[in-house]
Amino acid sequence: MKFHPQKTAFDVDGVVADTMSLFLKIAARDFGINSISYSDITEYYLEDCLDIDPDVVEVVINRIIENNSGIELLPIEGAVDALCRIGSRTPLLFVTARPRLDPIKRWISKTLSGVPSRIDVIATGSFEAKVDVLKAYGVTSFVEDRLETCFHLNENNITPILFSHPWNRKPHPFQSVRNWAEIEELLLVE
Ligand SMILES: [Mg+2]
Question: What is the C-alpha to C-alpha distance for residues 1 and 91, in angstroms, rounded to an integer?
Fold first, then answer.
């Protein structure tokens, strides 16, 4: 199955941004939590799988959302080069469930400064609200790392492409990818 680049949009955290790695770095530096590794994150909601104070999780997530931790948020391996190639042919749309747009929009603008096309970034504030935004943009497929959101998209006739991570390794019927090379292979070349 192939997907049209013009009708495909992307989640940000866990797809373009290596947000979980930033979480682990902030938790280690600010709270001395050194016992958690990436593969321990087997649930999207970290307090469901980690022995960690929910208040600490909230503080760390707020530092991520405001992008004021002083530790750089890095892109997922291969994302920038792939998006530069995809973005040379078509405008790019990113839809995040984050509650705050500005910090992540600035990060995307800086990270993807080599993309010649128009880039739109929308922050919905909720996972469920992604559907309406995607439909308004005529999007029919979406790269996402939260499995529950993939089911919701699918119920609303948007084909999810699951970006595989330790926190979404549960049974599902969706197309999945392990890296950006696999995303590019799925997108039809014009
Ligand atoms: Mg995500």
Answer: 22
Q: Check residue 129 and report its DSSP letter.
A: T
**Per-residue pLDDT reduced to its tens digit, 146-182:** 999 999 999 999 999 999 999 999 999 999 999 999 9
Q: How far is the CA of 43 from the centre of ligand 1 (A)?
A: 12
Q: Which two tokens stand for residue 73?
A: 């948020």
Q: Identify any residues that bridge with 75 across adjacent strands, giving them in sequence order.
A: 17
Cβ proximity of 30 and 60 under 8 Å: yes
Length of the chain: 190
Strand ranges (E), the chain: 8-10, 92-96, 119-123, 141-144, 159-163, 175-177
**Domain parsing of the chain, residue ranges:** 5-17+75-186, 19-66
CATH number of 5-17+75-186: 3.40.50.1000
Distance, CA 96 to ligand 1 centroid (Å)? Answer: 7
Separation CA 27–CA 141 (nearest Å): 34
Classify 28 as helix, strand or coil: helix
Whole-model pTM: value is 0.96
The first and second tokens of residue 74, run together, are: 């890095």
Ligand 1 geometric centre to CA of 189 (Å): 25
pLDDT at position 47, please? Answer: 86
Contacting residues for 52 by C-beta, under 8 A, at least 6 apart: 27, 33, 36, 46
